[in-house]
Amino acid sequence: MKILAFSDLHAAAPAARALVTASADVDLVIGAGDFCNMRQGLPEAMALLAGLQAPMIAVPGNAESADELRAATGPGVTVLHGEGCEAGGLKIFGLGYGIPVTPFGPWSCDMSEAQADTALAGCEAADILVFHSPPKGIADRTSAGQSVGSTAIHDAISRIQPRLAVCGHIHDSWGQRGMIGATEVVNLGPGGHMFEITP
User: What's the family (predicted)?
Assistant: First the structure.
C-alpha cells in the first residue's frame, strides 16, 4: 500500500495543491493534524484538500478539535482520536492534540500525559500509529533545543511496536526521523512523505 502522509498544513494553499497532485499516485493519505490556524478557518482549510484522489485518515492537531475536524470533513475522510480503523489490510490507530499541554493558551486543543495514557491504553496492536505530537526524545526539539515530546506517546510506541509512527506539531523538527525499538518515527511537515507498507 502506497501512503502519502503530512502534518501541519496550516491552511497553506500551495502545500495543499502539491498534496492533492501527489495523491494521484497513492492508496491512502494520512493527515497528522493542524489543518488550520488557532481554531480559525477549518472548513476553508479542508476545502483545499477536497481534490485528494485517495481516502484520508486524519487526526486533529492542537489547532482544531476532534469534533470540529469531523464536522469539516467530507466523504472519504476518517477522523481518528483515541480510536483505530483498518485501511487496505493495515491496522491504524490515531490520537491527536498537543501532548503534553502546550503553553499556547485556551484556543489550543491539548491533552495531559495522563489523558493520553488512558486514550492509548486500549490500543494493543497497530501497523501504523498516527499522532499530532511527537514522542519524547524523537523529532521533538524546538529551535531552542528543548525536547517537548510526549512520554505517553513514546511509551505507547515502545509497547505496541507498529511498523511506522508519524507525527508533526514541532515545526523545527519537520523531516526528522528516529527509531523506537523496531519502529521508525517520522515528523512529517506539510511537504508530505511517501511510504510503502505491505499488509
Answer: Belongs to the metallophosphoesterase superfamily. YfcE family.
